[in-house]
Design a protein that fits this description.
Layout: E1 2-6, H1 14-28, E2 33-37, H2 48-58, E3 63-69, H3 77-85, H4 88-91, E4 95-102, H5 110-122, E5 125-127, E6 132-134, H6 137-140, H7 150-166
Parallel strand pairs: 1-2, 1-3, 3-4, 4-5, 4-6
């Protein structure tokens, strides 16, 4: 099972739109996925709701796709809280992750993906080398949450094909 994590808690984010596009593309490739949106999720407490998500979504996942927006030159604190709140050996160890950065700026959250890579290496999760920066995301998406840019869709499809062959 592959879980897509939309790495922000902000409502109506471009990150969530990109996560939904990834899910649709994977569905077209015959892969069913879950999306874990951090929107509205209380990560500060390991309550019954959090433990249910951990047991039903995170632990059974053999791989993750993380869509990580750029926040202040890195990635959102809420995503770090998710990583820290989980039981590392059970949730993360010996699994695989694909990273996609989302930014309204020009670097597509390259630095944030590098920060995540360091964290994931530390908690024994293997990071796929094709980390895709999506720069100028506001110009790439339509109002309805689809990509206007065919080259971006081609890059995502190639990234997903490589990841599926790897997991």
């Amino acid at each position: 099972m592959i879980t897509i994590i939309s790495g922000t808690h902000r409502p109506g984010s471009n990150t969530q739109k990109v996560a939904l596009i990834y899910q649709q593309l994977l569905k077209e490739k015959g892969k069913n996925t879950d999306i874990l949106s951090l929107e509205g999720l209380n990560i500060l407490r390991r309550d019954a709701d959090f433990e249910k998500i951990e047991q039903e979504i995170l632990i059974p996942s053999k791989a993750f796709i993380i869509i990580a927006p750029e926040y202040n030159g890195s990635f959102p604190g809420t995503l770090k809280l998710l990583i820290d709140a989980c039981k590392p050996p059970v949730v993360w160890h010996n699994k695989k992750v694909l990273l996609t950065g989302v930014s309204s700026g020009r670097a597509g959250n390259l630095r944030g993906m590098d920060h995540l890579t360091g964290i994931f290496n530390h908690i024994k999760i293997t990071v796929h080398p094709n980390k895709l920066p999506l720069s100028g995301i506001n110009n790439l998406l339509t109002e309805t949450g689809t990509f206007k840019d065919e080259a971006t869709l081609m890059a995502i499809n190639q990234q997903l094909e490589e990841f599926l062959a790897w997991v």
